[in-house]
Amino acid sequence: MKKSDFQKQVHQHLYHENSNPNFMVSWYQKILMQLKVIKDASKHIKHARHLGDFLEDQVVSVFNEVIPKKFSLEKGFAINRHTSISKEQDILIVDTSLGSPICTTDTIGYHPIESVLASIEIKSNLNLAELRKSLLSCISIKKLNHPGFTIYPEHEKDLMYAIFAYSSSNKSTNFEKELNEMLIDIPEALRPNMIFILDKGLYLPEHGEYVYTRLDKIQCVSDKYQLIPNDMNQNADAENFILMVATIIAHLFEQSKSREPVNYSSYLFTAQRWLKFFEEKEAKSPKGVRSSLVSWDEKLGQLFTIYDEKCPVCEHEYMFYPTDILTSKKGKEALLQQYHNKGFIPLPKSKEFECQQCNHQFSLSLE
């Protein structure tokens, strides 16, 4: 290279940007186009299970390429220390530095919920029937961070749940309406965070009348969903997919930094304590017995917990209900009214109560 050419190119490198603003979008457009071609070609696969496995494998391979290698993509179940187990998940994104599976087979693992950062459900056709199944799958895994019948605010952002679908046979307006109606009885912390449909667009949580691309806004599903359509411009499908992937990755790094490693001994001892508790409860029923009751209310379609307590002096019986109820905000209002109509009493935060009959003050056992 001549000296004059070298000086010229130094100047170009210093004062010119060799940029391609469409590089990332065009790359992902090619990936999405491949998935669309694969979906079209898969029509020749007649066996439903084989079709599902084939399409699932294609999506898994895409996420394997884009999710940082620090995290592992697994198929299987999540489990918590109370031995509650989720429904089978298509993709579990696990931080193996936090913990390894409790047990595994050739292809399936049971992963401690503390090590599970995200889950992705894959659907060939996300019709309303499949959407209901996906919502139940989401509840089953997110609820592992909220054992019992209580939502713990500090764990609301622990797990991100996304649905990837090749298509949906429902019109977008009808799908969105049905989706938002299905959410009414699902607590906000147990709802999916994102739904991407290849031939429709990306559904994100709505806050007020707007959707936000900030991580903290997508981690919290406080209202309904709104669609960002894939046909709003020629790059919208790739931009929506990139947004979904980028949000998942941001969530993975945030959660990985804030979590403690799995305490494997708790998986043994917590389960043993539960067994001992139920064995003792069956074996004896002393004077002034206190018991936790779980009932299904047909009118509300709700499962709720109340506590039956007796005054140790006059044995007058009271029914208490917790105010941190496992339901949506609208469902909570209806349920609290139902409790009031039944004559139940709000559970005191102090767990101390003065008998309304004999004025004796006693501690609630809440067993």
Features:
alpha+beta; single chain; elongated; 2 domains; 16 strands
Topology summary:
Elements: H1 3-15, H2 23-41, H3 48-66, E1 72-79, E2 89-94, E3 103-104, E4 109-112, E5 116-125, H4 128-142, E6 160-167, H5 172-182, E7 194-197, E8 201-207, E9 210-211, H6 215-219, E10 225-229, H7 236-258, H8 264-283, E11 291-297, E12 302-310, E13 317-321, H9 329-342, E14 345-346, E15 352-354, E16 361-363
Parallel strand pairs: 1-4, 5-6, 6-7, 13-14
Antiparallel strand pairs: 1-2, 2-5, 3-4, 7-8, 8-9, 8-10, 11-12, 12-13, 15-16
Helix pairs in contact: 2-3, 2-7
Structurally, the number of domains stands at 2
What structural class should be given to the helix and strand makeup?
alpha+beta
What is the rounded Rg? 26 Å
Describe the main β-sheet briefly: 10 strands, mixed
Q: Roughly how much helix do the residues carry, as a percent range?
A: 25-40%
Tally of contiguous helical segments: 9
Shape: elongated
Strand content: 15-25%
N-to-C span? 84 Å
- The counted number of beta strands is 16
Oligomer: single chain
Instruction: Identify low-pLDDT runs.
Output: 284-292, 294-302
Average pLDDT metric: 86
Task: Note the run of SSEs as H and E.
Answer: HHHEEEEEHEHEEEHEHHEEEHEEE
Explain this structure to me?
This protein is α+β, with helices and mostly antiparallel strands and 367 residues long. It has two domains: 24-260, no CATH class; 285-363, no CATH class. The protein contains nine helices and 16 strands. The protein has helices spanning 3-15, 23-41, 48-66, 128-142, 172-182, 215-219, 236-258, 264-283, 329-342, and strands spanning 72-79, 89-94, 103-104, 109-112, 116-125, 160-167, 194-197, 201-207, 210-211, 225-229, 291-297, 302-310, 317-321, 345-346, 352-354, 361-363. A hairpin with a 3-residue loop joins strand 7 and strand 8. The N and C termini lie far apart (84 Å). The relative contact order is 0.10. Mean pLDDT is 86; it is low at 284-292 and 294-302.
